Amino acid sequence: MRSAITVCLVPEARSGPFVFHQDLELACAHASELGFAAIELFPPGAEDIDPRSLRQVLHRNRLDLAAVGSGAGWVARKLSLTSPDCTVRERALQFIAGLVDFAGAFGAPVILGSMQGRAEGPVTRDQALHWLAQALEQLGPRAHGYGVPFLLEPLNRYESNLLNTLADTTDFLQPLRTRNIRILADLFHMNIEEASLPQSIRRAGELIGHVHFADSNRLAMGAGHTDFLTVTEALREVGYKGYLSAEVFPKPTSEEAARRTMESFRRCFPAS
């Protein structure tokens, strides 16, 4: 397993749970100094980041791109794959498809979190899940063209009423034609929804494609009550070899949150 840390370039998400905000160059320098292997990037959109510049800053700091988040589509543009407006759903799909192409060039997957939307108003849960499945049937094969999976993140009940647990998501993915969707296991959401984090991880098994390494209070791992050693042991048991990425609040500072994350990571992996 490898370490990663979040970098958000979306002004509207400045209050969100991302370790570094706005300054990509400085964020990558700090991440490299602390020993992180990669960054997880949250851009405003695919057209807002110059791929050549990003490649240069990653190379200069000996970092990889772990994943790319799509949350700006909701936060800044109010786009959702389950909107009652078919025009909005199509714009959401195209926004995410552009990110798949952008991230795929770096060998990185795209994360679908808040843009999955929710069932509300005239949209029933069954209808929302139907539209979500239709979108994934397009996004999964598109990501496969770059040799990467597409990541679907179950969210806690206060953020979505569609898919809240790893088991919910596993059941939802089972009938899809595409086999290229993987689950993002966010430990913060799991602390709210799962009876046992290790057991849920073991049940999801090889469907887990990415992990958000966050404590129960969405602070750096070690600041809450998550038993991260049992979590990482369960991940080892299912053969997970991906990233543990810190999607946490930058408290007390970005640098301190990053440092505490790396300390916890090295407790789990002393040789790293």
Quick overview of this protein structure:
The protein is of the alpha/beta class and 272 residues long. The chain contains 10 helices and 9 strands.
Topology:
Layout (H helix, E strand, L loop, with lengths): L1 E7 L11 E2 L2 H11 L3 E5 L8 H10 L3 E6 L2 H4 L10 H19 L5 E3 L12 H20 L5 E3 L13 H8 L7 E6 H7 L3 H8 L3 E5 L15 H10 L5 E4 L7 H15 L4
Parallel strand pairs: 1-2, 1-3, 1-9, 3-4, 4-5, 5-6, 6-7, 7-8, 8-9
Helix pairs in contact: 4-5, 8-9
Description:
- With 272 residues, this protein is α/β, with parallel strands linked by helices.
- It has a single domain (2-268), classed as Alpha-Beta Barrel (TIM Barrel), CATH 3.20.20.150.
- The chain is 41% helix and 15% strand.
- The chain contains ten helices and nine strands.
- An eight-stranded parallel beta barrel has the order 1-3-4-5-6-7-8-9, surrounded by six helices.
- Helix 8 runs parallel beside helix 9.
- The radius of gyration is 17 Å and the shape is globular.
- The model has no long low-confidence stretch (mean pLDDT 96).
